[in-house]
Automatic annotation (TrEMBL):
Lineage of producing organism: Bacteria, Bacillati, Actinomycetota, Actinomycetes, Mycobacteriales
CC cofactor: FAD
Top-rank taxon, per record: Bacteria
Acyl-CoA dehydrogenase/oxidase C-terminal domain boundaries: 233-373
Tagged with keyword Hydrolase: no
Organism from which the protein derives: Mycolicibacterium vanbaalenii
Location of the Acyl-CoA oxidase/dehydrogenase middle domain: 129-201
InterPro entries: Acyl-CoA_Oxase/DH_mid-dom, Acyl-CoA_Oxase/DH_mid-dom_sf, AcylCo_DH-like_C, AcylCo_DH/oxidase_C, AcylCoA_DH/ox_N, AcylCoA_DH/ox_N_sf, AcylCoA_DH/oxidase_NM_dom_sf
Protein name (database record): Acyl-CoA dehydrogenase FadE27
UniProt xrefs under Pfam families: Acyl-CoA_dh_1, Acyl-CoA_dh_M, Acyl-CoA_dh_N
Keyword annotations from UniProtKB, A to Z: FAD, Flavoprotein, Oxidoreductase
MF GO annotations: acyl-CoA dehydrogenase activity; flavin adenine dinucleotide binding
EC number annotated for this UniProt entry: 1.3.99.-
Entry's family note: Belongs to the acyl-CoA dehydrogenase family.
Domain Acyl-CoA dehydrogenase/oxidase N-terminal: 11-123
Length: 376
């Protein structure tokens, strides 16, 4: 609790991390390149993905050293996520490193972690977490998919929907029900064992897929029926990390709006001199800073295994989701007609804001979850 209550000032090393990641993304993730990747089949740039690992070791940043990572905390991971959100990077980082990696790390299954985490940390294995089903709910209690034991193996039958980067994953961590309860299972080589279909979604910078399992062999992770606590912790970590990404996107929307307000002129003066525009930018700034504080608290709580994490993660995700959407909408309005056009990047941030707002649960979902967790 000590460092949480002492504030969120970054160390010089953390500032260096931010500068390095921002510089890398400025060179590798230009608007032109984002649009090219959006139009491709995979939805990410394999060369940039590997450079992220080989040059910066980003995929292994928060994975323990004995599993092939660097052993940093979610605070450092949040810095990276914020910069990725700022650049609108299309990549399977959230799916592979945060969701699948987090589930394996918190499962307590040393064998499964040793089997998969080194590959995830090196970027050579792309993994994802398959939790949501037809309704798209991120509530772990909503899972109905079954897993049945067959000798030494487990067999999966059913459908997982809206799976992040499920179309390119080399391994899938599947959430299913057994006779003992909620369980985690891994499916390797899903190309050969799972019918995968890329979905048409609002946000073209983050791909989702529908996965159909038919008699698919799988391997149990952790204890049979003991996945609920693992999943809740992994999802809390992911909500904190995603809120940092949303802050990065919202900050970029604010920066774009302010830059435009300084150069766009009406009635012989910059539109930024008009009170209505100034007030709108001030509201955006307040939103961004409040969201940043909430995200930083949640990331610090996760890094320290603090008991406030469940509440902090829900608060951060709920606030950051709405702040990002408001900032993205205001950015379009300040830009006027050009902000609505395909040629301008403002609409890409708005689509990411809307999509991220529902990812891992909407603001309403997290407020209900917060009420349940605090006994309100």
């Amino acid at each position: 609790m000590t460092s949480i209550t002492q504030g969120f000032a970054l160390s010089e090393e953390q500032h260096d991390l931010r500068r390095t990641v921002r510089s890398f993304l400025a060179a590798k993730c230009t608007e032109e390149r984002v649009r090219e990747v959006m139009a491709g089949d995979s939805g990410y740039d394999p060369a940039v993905w590997q450079q992220m690992s080989d040059q910066l070791a980003l995929q292994g940043l928060a994975i323990p050293e004995h599993f092939g990572g660097l052993g940093f905390s979610l605070v450092e991971l949040g810095i990276v996520m914020e910069e990725m959100g700022r650049a609108l990077l299309p990549s399977p980082f959230l799916a592979s490193v945060v969701l699948a990696g987090g589930a394996l790390l918190h499962s307590g299954d040393e064998s499964a972690a040793q089997r998969w985490l080194p590959g995830i940390a090196s970027g050579r294995t792309i993994a994802t977490l398959a939790l949501t089903e037809e309704a798209g709910s991120w509530d772990v209690d909503s899972v109905t998919m079954r897993a049945e034991r067959s000798g030494d193996c487990w067999i999966l039958d059913g459908v997982k929907n809206f799976v992040l980067d499920g179309h390119v994953a080399d391994m899938v961590v599947v959430v299913a029900r057994t006779d003992a309860g909620l369980s985690l299972l891994t499916v390797e080589n899903p190309t050969e064992r799972v019918n995968r279909r890329t979905l048409s979604t609002l946000d073209p910078t983050r791909r989702q897929a529908r996965l159909e399992f038919t008699g698919t062999p799988a391997t149990l992770v952790g204890t049979d029926g003991g996945a609920a606590p693992t999943l809740r912790r992994a999802l809390d970590d992911a909500a904190a990390a995603l809120s940092a990404e949303q802050v990065g996107g919202a900050q970029r929307c604010l920066d774009m709006a302010v830059e435009y307000a300084k150069v766009r002129r009406q009635f012989g003066k910059p539109i930024g001199s008009f009170q209505a525009i100034r007030h709108r930018c001030a509201d955006m700034l307040l939103d961004v800073e409040c969201a940043r504080g909430a995200a930083q608290y949640a990331l610090s709580a996760a890094a320290q295994n603090d008991e406030t994490l469940p509440a902090a993660a829900s608060i951060a995700k709920a606030y950051a989701s709405e702040a990002y959407e408001r900032a993205a909408a205001a950015n379009i309005q300040i830009h006027g007609g050009i902000g609505f056009t395909w040629e301008h990047p403002a609409h890409l941030y708005y689509k990411r804001a809307k999509s991220s707002g529902h990812l891992l649960g909407s603001a309403g979902h997290h407020r209900r979850q917060l009420a349940d967790r605090t006994g309100i």
